[in-house]
Design goal:
This protein is of the alpha+beta class. Helices cover 21% and strands 41% of the residues. It has a 17-stranded mixed sheet that branches. Strand 9 and strand 10 form a beta hairpin. The longest helix has 15 residues.
Length: 269
Amino acid sequence: MEFSKLEGTGNDFIIVDNRDGKFEKFVGKHPVSFAVRKICNRKRGIGADGLILIEDSGRATVKWRFYNSDGSTAEMCGNGARCAARFAYERGIAPKNLTIETGAGVISAEVKGRSVKVKLTPPRDFLFDLKVEGLNLHFVNTGVPHAVVFVDRVDAVDVEGVGRKVRFSEFFSPAGVNVNFAEVRADRVVVRTYERGVEGETLACGTGSVASALVAARLFSIPSPVEVEVRSGERLRVYFDAEMKEVYLEGETTWIADGNLREEFIGGA
């Protein structure tokens, strides 16, 4: 099965052109979640934060099915959307200005070489000053649910330990939540994210960067665009209008490799 691997500011994804159903043929009798976990495994597979299937859509230029590395599905992924848009454009599946049907709704994207800018679904469900697991945090859904915790020094946070407690807290049960730790500096917001579905800290999270930027803008009167530095050290830009109904995420992508998965890889459970 042919695949490509792309990354956006440290979030890496396996992408398959599945318009002909090659993924289902490759997976065969095995559950999709099993195949995704195997492919995304960093020691015995290709390794990735997620897997994206590009398919035909009746509502947009293309449709995707997005899977986290643990085999679960996600409605939206900002960096995944940027990588998927570049893949679809460079593979000749879509023009440089395209729309993608996601679980969160239809989003639009513009491919500008390695840089890709996506317009996300409008953020919703803003909640401020919640008390969860002894923390003061804020909440917003940017396509998927995100908690934002502001800290004095983001590099001093136990992202794995504290993030896991909040992610699995009763307050956000049963769906859980992604957890962002954000430090506001003079020229940028620095963010580290515990991602639901990956179940650990990732080098970047697009929707988490958007959530952190929007909450910071509301609480600290930061104007658009907000520069967000992620764990990889790279930066994303978050644009928004005064009412935060139109929100864009922009940043670089890298096309890492193209390859073929052999049948023997998926053969045993």
